[in-house]
Amino acid sequence: MIRIKNKITPVLAALVILSALITVSAGQPEPCIEIEKWINGEDYITAAPTEMLEITLWINNCGNVNLTNLSVRDNFPLKKFNAGLSWADNSDPVADGMVSGFNPEGWIDFDVIWLGDIPAYPLGHLAQFEPLQPGENFTITFEATVDELAEGAYENCATVTANYTIPGQVSVAVSDTDCATVFVPSPVPAFTPTGLIALISLLSAIAAVAIVRKRR
């Protein structure tokens, strides 16, 4: 009697293993959240003092499980006096809190916070988006102004956190951070009437000397 044996090739073995991994991983929870931040629709913009800016935060559930306990924190750039960016409100949804203070170096530290349905602050303004299901997203918008004495680059970052609760186990936290930058060019020096007259006189003298040398 002739027996025919199946031959397992390396390629066939790899396909069997890959199929098993896909089957196992398909049912595994993979919590994920992401945030994108734009200022006037861009990651990097140039602005002038007193200019109004529109900030957009886009939050997306990039995993395969529902997320709760949403929290978003926007960290304004550190600044001294009236030289940086300032909160101008018009937030949608409404912010749930603000934190302001000074760091050890004397810089002003200002953060804005939006919360979901968390134990310490139930029914925050992000609770309307919970549970955030896979593929779902929402947007937060607000305004800020460029301070009169602002100059240079200001990086503005925002962080989102959320929880996924494994049945019968502890919660798993996920988070993400994204930043956008505002660049404020140095102001062009403005001439006073006296300085302008002096500049004109200097240019006239230079021109006169050049004419005399040319005639010689």
Please tally the β strands and state the result.
10
Major pleated sheet: 6 strands, mixed
| Average pLDDT figure | 85
**CATH topology (fold) name:** Immunoglobulin-like
Biggest sheet strand order reads 2-10-9-4-7-6
Strand content: 35-45%
Kindly describe this structure:
The radius of gyration is 30 Å and the shape is elongated. The protein has a single domain, classed as Immunoglobulin-like (Sandwich), CATH 2.60.40. It has a six-stranded mixed sheet with strand order 2-10-9-4-7-6, with no helix packed on it. It has helices at residues 10-26, 193-215; strands at 33-39, 44-46, 52-61, 68-75, 85-92, 97-102, 108-115, 137-146, 152-165, 171-184. The protein has 216 residues and is α+β, with helices and mostly antiparallel strands.
Brief write-up:
By secondary structure, the chain is α+β, with helices and mostly antiparallel strands.
Please render the helix and strand layout as text:
Blueprint: H1 10-26, E1 33-39, E2 44-46, E3 52-61, E4 68-75, E5 85-92, E6 97-102, E7 108-115, E8 137-146, E9 152-165, E10 171-184, H2 193-215
Parallel strand pairs: 2-10
Antiparallel strand pairs: 1-3, 3-8, 4-7, 4-9, 5-8, 6-7, 9-10
Question: Main traits of this protein?
Answer:
four-stranded antiparallel β-sheet, six-stranded mixed β-sheet, 2 helices, about 220 residues, Immunoglobulin-like, alpha+beta
